[in-house]
Structure formats: structure tokens, C-alpha cells
Amino acid sequence: MPKSPSRSSEPPPERAGTRRLPHWRSDLFTVLAAFGLAFLVTAGLWLDPNGRAITVNSSDQALFEWLLSYGAHAVTHGENPLYTTLLNYPLGVNLAVNTSITVYAVVFAPLTFLAGAPMTFLVILTLNLAATAIAWYWLLSRHLVGNGFAAALGGLFIGFAPGMVSHANAHLNWTAGWLVPLLIWRVIQLRQPGRWLRNGLILGVLVAVAFSIAAEGLFFTALALAVFLAVWAAQPPHWGQVRAALPSFLRGLGVTAVTAGALLAYPLWLHFAGPQRFHGTGFDAIVHSEDLAAYGAYPQRSLAGLAGLDTGLAPNPTEENSFFGIPLLLLAVVCFVLLFRYGNRSRRATLIALAVTAIVFTVLSLGPVLKFNGGVTDTALPFATLGRLPVINAALPSRLALIIGPILGILLAYAADLLIRRRRGARSRAIWTVAFAVALVPLIPAPLLTLQREPIPQFITAGTWREYVSPGGVLTPLPLTLDVTPDGQRWQAYALADNQGEFAIPSGFFLGPGGPDGRGKIGPVVRTFDSMVARAGQTGRVPPVTRATRVAALQDLEYWDVQVVVLADAPHGAKWPVRADAVRQVATELLGEPTRVDDVWLWTKPTDGWVG
Questions:
Q1: Model pTM?
Q2: Structure-derived torsion over alpha carbons of residues 354, 355, 357, 361, reported in degrees to the nearest 10
Q3: CA distance 555 to 253
Q4: Domain contains 35
Q5: Structural domain count, the chain
Q6: CA-CA distance, 553 to 531, in Å (whole number)?
Q7: Which helix (H) or strand (E) holds 563?
Q8: In this structure, is residue 79 part of a structural domain?
Q9: Where are the beta strands (DSSP E) in 345-444?
């Protein structure tokens, strides 16, 4: 296995045997810089945590706020945190196949109850960004390179790489990159002789935590480590280390599997065999794959993006998973050549393993067919075959590019460490400083775009809804809750965090069955009532209401056991403005005249039922 303190593998002659300097200066610099950049990225939300939302992904923000509220409510009220009928009533939602972030929900439950889910969301997002940079810095400075500021360069780049800033658009799972260096560290520790039981237990618990927070990220990390270690171990300079470490490593890995399996037995059962499960997502693998030209492009939320150098090569602004820019790619090649030239056999073997891992994940991130500069070619790629395998078929290929950021960060840290230790002349230092600046300054992150979101109605915040809905009964907002119209989950999140009680909704933003070929889809299968209301809200045109459509719509309300239908004055549309006037008109034609209660329009279930 790789030596943990590899910094001693290739010191130049003039520094060999010198005492390692303390890291407190680089520690302080990294922590301050990491939190400074994290607050810069999230600055727009800190202006008004409860009133602002992320512009390009307010739907995912609403989903994660709901997950935080529901998770906190579930563990404090003895409910199942991984399955609920509060969404998609009466069938429910399998949260184990969604992004349940249970660990975050439990740990931050006091903050959620005290300050609300939006504040908890913002705190976790900010901490995720800062902690990712700090955790990578710690791994680099304590285990991989000797110079603290070289480690800071690598850690800060990884923590605020284009993919991380892109996923800061509301993805609490993918921004939890601090898990990756911890997993790498604990995997390396499995080689220690005589400590396989202890190390296996620690790694098993960490794997269970990572699965709860970011299962897809855990899977990608495991794949990357497998590729790296296989290539690393296959090279002659490491054969002796491998033979010596393999028994302890395999024993520890076995303990890890047993520990993680015991802790995750129920979530894994729900994931693969529980109700409302599905096999593979309904997302198009071609759409959600990297464009080869994207690797040399610049991201939107960066200095280069602000200067107009961004592109539209990502499927959406949240999935700019590569976007490193051509200067950084060229610098990485030069750094690799430099390190290979001055490295000993062991360091060269490590560099080869890093390069092979980067190539493998770059190719896989391109998806089933090659795309270039916005065009789709007929060139088939390995993911066309691998994407049919279980588990892999649920992954978005473009996200495999997120593995490249840490590899580049490690390479930059290695190169900076070597350059600092070799004490090159003033001219050489100036050239390298300019090269690093040209490659990295354009990628300095810019604040996320935010907008003022529609307030939660007083009908919810004042608890008036409890006069119309029995405990655990069903309420539906108009339009029904989906990723594009997330109001229902925002209202639920508020009620749960405010300890008002529970109401269920018949739809929701979640992944569930119902997609083509047994795959998943967002939200439930569409029915007549929600289809008519959604069409009116999006287009502003009221669809024809016939006797047949009215009966079908009312039967939908009976099936969902809806007690009250609610229309706010300004429903939130995550992708387009909701035409509340058209929604009110179609609902009135279907259900009759509404009643004004507080600041909403209300249709209540007749005593003889919706269908009479």
C-alpha cells in the first residue's frame, strides 16, 4: 500500500534529512482562506437566509430543506427517517433511494428547530465548502507533501474547484467533499500491521456516514481508489510494500465490510428491495455526460465566467463538473513531466497511477457517445456498455469528472512542494508563479446567483392549516408539488421545523418508480388533476373542463384523500413563473368557488366527498 508519509520519497539532496517545519502558519492561512471563500460563494444567501434562494436550483434547495426538516422531525418523533407517506400520499417515498442526508438531519436537528431549515441548509453548505478544502489540506500537509503552503494550494483548489462551486448550487451531498480525504486516509491506514480490527471498524463507520450523506460520491470514491490502488500495486517499485501490507489490508477491509454492512443493512434493503424502489434513473446519459470541450472551458461562477468566458457546454449550471480551462490542463501536463523527471521510482509509479485514474474517469465521464463543442458524434465510448450494469446505471456519467479535480489538486501540491524545496532562481520562480496564476486566477469562484423567493403563506406560518386538516391528513398546494413547483415541500418543512404537526401532500419532488423500462422518474405518475393545473400554471391557458375531465380530477382528489386544496397568491416556480390567475380559474371550474382564508384561496372537501 502507499506509504502515508510519502514526502520523504524524493527530497532533493540539499534538503535530505532536514527537520520538518511546523505547519501552524499554513494551517491558519488555509482555514481563513477556506472560510473566506466559502462565505464569498454563499454570500447572496447570507443576506437573507429565509428569504433568498439559489437562482438556478431553488427546487433542489427546497428538497434539501425538506430533508433536513423531515429528518429532524422523524428522529425526534420516532418515525422512519428513510421512508415516509408525507410525500406521494398514499404510496409514500423511499428516501433510501433518494438523497436522504440523514446524518446531517440528525446532527443539525437543534439548529433546524431553532432557526429553521433554510438556515440549516445554508450553514451546512458553507461548512461543506470550507471543510472540503481544509480536509484536503490536512491530508496533503500531513501525509503527502512537506510544505504547508503547497498543501494549501492543493487543498484550496480542490475545495473550490469548478465542480464543487457548481454543485454549491444547492447540492448538500456533492459539496460534502470533506468525506473523500478522510476515506482515503482511513483506507491507507488499513495497511498497518496489528491494527486491522481497529482500522476496519473506523473505516466501516465512516463508510456508513458517507453513504448517508452522499452515496453516489462514496461509490465514485471507491471506484477511483480501486483503479488507483490496482495500478499502483501492479508496478515493481511497490511489490514489496504490497506483499507486506496485503494481509492486514484485506483483514481490515473485511472488518470494514461487516461493520458498514451491519450499520447499513436496513438502508441497503430499502435501496435494493424496499417499496417504491426503482432500477436506474430516468436521466438521459447522453445529456448528462461531459462534452470533451468542457474540460478546456471556464465555469459560469468564476472570474473567467464573470468576464464572459463561460460557455453553455453543461446540461445545467449545477453540473459544470470539469471546466478547468486550457491553461490549467497545460500546467498539469508540465507539472507531471517535472515531477516525473525529478521523482524516484516510487514517486513515478504514484504519478502513473494518478494519470491512469484521471484518464479512466475522464473517458467514463464522456458518457456513452462522444460529444464535442455542443455536438453529438457517433463515436461509442466505454460507458455505453458499463452504463448497463447495476448501480452504475443509476449514475450520471458527467459527475465522474468530479474525480479529476482532486487528482489535479494533488498534482499541483506535489509540483509546488518540489519547486519550493528546489530553491530555483528568481527568473524561474517568476515564470512558475505566472504559470500558476494564469491557470488558477480565472477559476477563483464568484458568488452564487440568488433571488428573493416567495414567502411561505401566513396560512402555514400561523398554523391556520390545522383548522382544516386533521393530524396527518392531506393538503395539496396548487400547482401540485414537483421539482418545478416545490411549494408543498417548503410548507411542510416549515410546519415540521416549527413543531406544528404533520400534513401529507399527494405529490412531491423525489425520485420514484414510473419511468421507462422500470427506471425512476421525478415525482409520481401524472394524473388528470395535476396535469390540468400544471398546464394552466405554466402556459396561462385554461384547458377545457368537460364532465369527463371534471369527474377524473375529482376522483384523483378522492384517491389522494385530500382534505383541503390551497392556492397562494404567488406560487413559486423554479423554472418558470406560475400563472396563479389561470390556476385559480381551472381550480374553480373543477371544484367550485374558493374561500379566502388568511392570504390563500381555499377549497375544502365537501361533506359528501369530492365526487359527491
A1: 0.93
A2: 140
A3: 54
A4: yes
A5: 2
A6: 9
A7: strand 562-568
A8: no
A9: 369-372, 375-380
